[in-house]
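Quick start: what a row looks like.
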Amino acid sequence: MEWFDLVSTYSPSGAGEPSLYDSFRMWADHYRAWIIFVQLILVYYLGFATRIRMPILKNVLLYILLFAGALIFAILDVQLPVKSALLIAIAILVIVKVRIKPDGSTRK
């Protein structure tokens, strides 16, 4: 059995041609790990990265570990709302980044 058949949680309601929403939900089910991987990268860079530029091997190791975490989260996403929680985290981090602008007038 294929990965998609094992973890698919969405089944279209109609027996005929799937609607646009049904097609999107089946696509999101099929590419669940990649969607979570992109969301994890966004959360990392919005909330935890102090420097954007790192050496290339550290970046490669970071992306490998983020993808391993995305695979674990993809398995958990079958029963838990992982994608929704990551979207909320991204929204909160964007709001924080917009509201807290670095002030250049601070003196030490």
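That is the whole record. The helical segments are 3-7, 20-30, 32-47, 56-76, 82-99. The mean pLDDT is 82.
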